[in-house]
Amino acid sequence: MIRPSEDNQYYELHSPTAMPKASGFLWNENMMIHMNCRGYAVSQFMQPEPSKYSHAPNLEAKTFMQPEQPYYAHHPGRFVYIKDEESGGLFSAPYEPVRVLPERYTFFAGKHDIKWLVQHDGIAVEMKLGLSKNDPFELWTVKVANQGRAKRKISVYPYYTVGYMSWMNQSGQYHEELQSIVCSSITPYQKYKEYDKIKHLNDKTFLLADKAPTAWEVNQEVFEGEGGIGNPSALEGDTLSGSDARYEMPVCVMQYKLELEPGDETELRFIFGAARTEEDIAAIRRKYFQPGTGGSDGFAEAEAEYAAYVREGEGCLEIDTPDKALDNFANHWLPRQMYYHGRTNRLTTDPQTRNYLQDNMGMSYMAPELAREAFLTALSQQNASGAMPDGIILHKDAELKYINQVPHTDHCVWLPVCLVTYLDETDDYSLLEEKVAFADSPELATVSRHIDLAMEWLLKTRDERGLNYIEQGDWCDPMNMVGYKGKGVSGWLTMASGYAFRVWGDICQNCGRMEEAALYRQRAEETNEIVNRYLWDGNWYARGITDDNVPFGISSDKEGKVFINPQGWSLMCGAADEQKKAKLMQAVTEHLESPYGVEKLGPPYTAMREDVGRVTQKHPGTAENGAVYNHAAAFYIYALYLADEKDHAFDLLRRMIPGPDQEDLERRGQLPVFIPNYYRGAYRQIPRTAGRSSHLFNTGTVPWVYRILVDGLFGLKGERNGLRVAPRLPSDWSGVSVKRSFRGAELNVSIKRYKGIAAQEVYVDGELAEDGLLAHLETGKHYEVLVKIPG
Ligand code: CEZ
Predict the structure, then answer these.
(1) CATH topology of domain 714-790
(2) Of 36, 222, 430, 633, whose CB has the highest number of CB atoms within 10 Å?
(3) Mean pLDDT of all residues belonging to the chain
């Protein structure tokens, strides 16, 4: 059984083997931990670049967070071995590494903590992982209880992976006075200039205990002996040997010998994470484990502070629909995931510009003051030419890394596309008047002027036909060889520019810049003509045209025939008329829709296409090569709502969330506590793996799904003069209730079908609202809104 807990604070899973990769994640201002149900963990903290304190057993590559990370026996983990001192029986909680199937098992993926309850052989083990609001370490509570009728003598061994810390220097030992295992290392470097940076790093990994252990082990090899991690030799002895690690791989294991009468329970608390010095660890110990004046409990206070921090990430919608699983996801997990993105910038110091802008589009719904700051930060890094950089630098020591060193041409598009959500939500048009400098010029210009320049840049970087150059990529990062010779163009980007002009034109109109409004709307119209002249392939739109003037994403292609992005965005920019719309939707259904959502392209490429690029080299059905890439799927769904295709849109939206039936959950392999960046696609070619989650919870999908709910499904979108009500419920819903917070007002909206009415009618506190516009809403007030829809 997989279900939400009664208070909706957790999602529960009752087997460690049904969905072995099922997981939850926690983050704070400085770290993130992705915890799977069997006890494996991926954690990292910022200093300011992402770093680890719990490593793999071999040299790990430093890279961005990866989808479909493999787990293996020595994968970093957090486990508790339990040994019966009399019978010698051994098991481990939550499940790894001993892999004895417990009699009862529950994994609770929570919002502000992650828990397990494991019962085996008369012993109950409760494990809880929490975080503090700021510190780079984990707060663990382990409770062990005797559930049987006889007294039990057991040893409890908490195990925390330290792994291969450094090829230059690594060691570890137990410190009596700290009641802590402290492992030390030096972050490897070679250029002397780096010394200045590395000398300040938190290079120690520590495990701090609130109760003194009976014994400990700090040497991975000694601990495992010949038995290996699944049956460590060290557990055969009476007590752990207490050895240290001297340029040997460290581990943090402690032993607690317990004698438990029936019903007895022992609680142990641990802190595991990164620190710089022993003094720091001593201070952590004082703060968290030594009662303050009046007996205050630093550990519990930190947990409570963290819970409050997570609760701040509230959305502006609370929904009650016939679809309870959707309600659970939209009310509890979706805003949380969106908040995670906005607060952490995906744990990078140089987020990709488009990601940064879209993540802050999401923040417009929950922390608009942060979104405002972010838009200003992004614009301050724009060039005077109008060009936006590939990444936004968020720390003085940060530099553009990885994909941000590859020129992509779409970043300007996201400015109006994301900003409009902020404006709709807040009506803060004063932002457009703020003055900001440029990356390459101290000259101050208003936000409006900056965005004009961005639009002009998109108009300048077009070929003689009026199609936008792609260089080494657009939204699709790995589409790197369509235009690297300087000629190839992106069909999608041309449409997206058209859409950006249209949105920007509307914004200009709203703030009285009538000339600009007319100009950008005209550019949008012209762009649509260009799109239809060069990109329509008869039944759908092409993805682009290569350096050698070869259109691709067209019917004569064997692979990569249809791409989702140009289809959806042609609806958004208004290029597709009714006839084209019907045809392209038909093509999408035929070539790209699957039970797990709509695929990004199809059929997936099976071999390198040198005039398209490395996207074609990704495994078929993964990531951008034909997975159900949820970010792209969300664009399409948003477009379907704009095009008033409400049933189709809802159907695809629903497929984005794992479940609700068990079979679907197991196939995805993921709990519905986040939307992953993709589900495996290639449904028609490789059905065996289709639907499988990537488990990567960094994705631009979430703000778009939120926007789909606000603007599309529930139709409660802000505009200059108030809130426009225009719900687009699926036909088989008779009604819903929605709580909507909007500019400080609280609205209880009830949307119901009524027989005998021809068009929607909206009443606010009993009064008819013309055109469904709720104007004059006041901050701090409550409103009852009744929406009658025909049905
Ligand atoms: O990264 C995402 C980007 O963060 O891919 C999206 C893009 O729009 C986002 O901005 C689509 O390409 O370089 C690679 O091949 C990576 O696979 C990235 O494309 C991808 C990763 O999955 C990271 O999330």
Answers:
(1) Maltose phosphorylase, domain 3 (2.60.420)
(2) 633
(3) 97
The fraction of the chain above a pLDDT of 70, given in percent, is: 100
- In this structure, the number of other CB atoms found within 10 A of the CB of residue 481 comes to 22
Please, what sign has the CA dihedral across residues 452, 456, 459, 462? negative
Band the pLDDT of 664: cuts 50, 70, 90.
very high
Choosing from 68, 361, 477, 698 the residue with most ligand 1 atoms within 8 A of its CB, the one to mutate for a pocket test is 477
Specify the 3-state DSSP secondary structure of 617.
Answer: helix
The reported pLDDT for the residue numbered 439 is 98
Structure tokens at 580: 């084209």
Ligand 1 lined by 475 (C-beta under 6 Å): yes
Largest Cα–Cα distance of the chain, in whole Å? 86
C-alpha closest to that of 554 among 601, 599, 597, 586: 601
Whether 352 lines ligand 1, by a CB cut-off of 6 Å, is yes
**71, exposed or middle or buried, with CB in 10 Å at 0-12, 13-18, 19+?**
middle
**Considering only CA atoms, which of 427, 489, 464 is closest in space to residue 720?**
427
- List the chain domain ranges: 2-289, 714-790
Nearest CA owner, ligand 1 atom 21: 66
User: Quick one: which of 698, 703, 625, 693 has its CA closest to 65?
Assistant: 698
ipTM beyond cut 0.95: yes
Token readout for 432 is 């457009």
**499: closest CA among 545, 455, 535?**
455
Report d(CA 270, CA 628) in Å as an integer. Answer: 40
Going by pLDDT thresholds of 50, 70 and 90, the confidence category of residue 358 is very high
Is it the case that residue 214 has pLDDT exceeding 90? yes
Q: Which residues does the annotation mark as catalytic?
A: 477
Classify residue 516 as left (phi > 0), alpha (psi -120 to 50) or beta. alpha
pTM above 0.90, yes or no: yes
CATH of domain 2-289: 2.70.98.40
28 CA distance to ligand 1 middle (Å): 23
Burial (CB < 10 A; 0-12, 13-18, 19+), residue 307, is: middle
Tell me how far apart the alpha carbons of residues 223 and 671 are, in angstroms, rounded to a whole number. 34
Contact 136, 42 (CB under 8 A): no
> 261 alpha carbon to ligand 1 midpoint, in Å?
55
pLDDT score for 403: 95
pLDDT on residue 65: 85
Q: What is the pLDDT of residues 39-96, one digit of tens each?
A: 999 999 999 999 999 999 999 988 888 999 999 999 999 999 999 999 999 999 999 9
Segment 129-157 mean pLDDT: 98
